[in-house]
Amino acid sequence: MEKKAKTEAGTWLVVVNPNAGSRKGEKDWPKIHALLSAHGFTFHAVFTESRNHAIALTSSAIAEGYRNIIVIGGDGTLNEVVNGVFRQDACAAADIAIGMIPVGTGNDWGRMYGLPKKYKEAIKVIKEAYLIKQDAGFVTYHDNEGKHERYFINMSGMGYDALVAMKTNSMKDRGRGGKLAYLTNIFTGLFQYKYTHFNIGVDGKEVFSGRVLSMNLGICKYNGGGLMQVPEAIPDDGLLDITVIKATSKFNIVKHVVKLYDGSFTKLKFVNTYRGEKCTIISKPRGSVFLEADGESLGHSPLHFSVVYQALTFIVPEPETL
C-alpha cells in the first residue's frame, strides 16, 4: 500500500448510477455534486441509462484521457466500471485510480475497507488519496449466445446464492429493490432452490463432487449486505477463497443462518473451504449452475475462474496504525 498525490491532479470522471439504492443516486446527486465542488474537485459526470452502460462509459472516457474515476452507485456499478477499465487498451488497468461514494443497497466491497457511507466522509477519503493495489477475479461463463467473460472485485456466487441475486435483481428492475427485498429472497429462495450436482476443481485437482446448496468465491469477504461468506479472504494475495455449502436440510440452514454474519458457519460439518489461483465448476446436467458476480446476474456453467494479481488501484481509507 502507498499514498500518492497523482489523484489530486486533472479532471475526474464521475460515473453516476441514478437507479442505485432505489433511485438514491438520482435523488442525492445534487448534494454529492455540491460536496465534490466544495472539496475542490474538477470533474465530468456521466449517468448510466441501462444495465452494463457504465462499462462503455468508462472505457470510452479512459480512451479520452481520464485516469481518475469516482463511482457513485453500488457494488454492481463498481463492477461495471472495473470491467470498463479492463476492456480499454489506452493504459494498464492499474494506472486508473478508482474511488467510490456508496449509494447502493449492500455496499459490500466498501465494507471490506471501512469505506464511510456518509458522503462528506467518503469524499474526504478520495481527497486524501490513499491508494492500494487489489486483485481482480475473472470468470468465463455461458448463456444462450455462447461463451462470455467478466471481471469481479468482491465476490461471485453460484447455486442458491445466484438464485437470490437473480430474484433480487428482477425486483430492482421493477423498482422494488432494497435490503428488505434481499432478505425476503433469502428465505423464499431457500425453499425454491433445488440442490444441484457440482464437480469442483481447484488448481487442476478435483476437490468435490456432489450436491451443493450454495458456493462462493471471494476476493473480499462480504456480500448480501454484510454476510461474511468467505471470512479468510485477503484482497491482494493472488488467491480465490472458496466456500461450498453442501446439500443439507433446509431446517439446518435456517438454524445456522446467523453464523453467516460472523463467518463462523464455515466450521459447520456441511461446509467445505478451499483456496487457490484457479477454480472450475462443471454441473450435472450441464448448464444447471447459475452465476452472479458482485451481485450481477450473468449466465451458467461450465465456469472457469482465475485471479489477476493486484491488477487494480483503489482509493480507500488509510488503515489505522498502532
Provide a descriptive summary of the structure in words.
- With 322 residues, this protein is an alpha+beta fold.
- The chain folds into 2 domains: 2-135, Rossmann fold, CATH 3.40.50; 137-308, Tumour Suppressor Smad4 (Sandwich).
- It is built from 8 helices and 17 strands.
- It has helices at 20-38, 53-63, 75-86, 108-113, 119-128, 160-173, 179-192, 250-256; strands at residues 2-3, 12-16, 43-47, 68-73, 97-102, 130-143, 146-152, 155-159, 196-202, 205-218, 222-223, 227-228, 240-246, 271-276, 278-284, 290-293, 296-315.
- The strands form 2 sheets. Strands 8-10-9-15-17-16 form a 6-stranded antiparallel β-barrel. The chain has a two-stranded antiparallel sheet with strand order 11-12.
- The radius of gyration is 19 Å and the shape is globular.
List the defining traits of the structure above.
322 residues; alpha+beta; Rossmann fold; Tumour Suppressor Smad4; 6-stranded antiparallel barrel; 17 strands; 29% helix; disordered N terminus
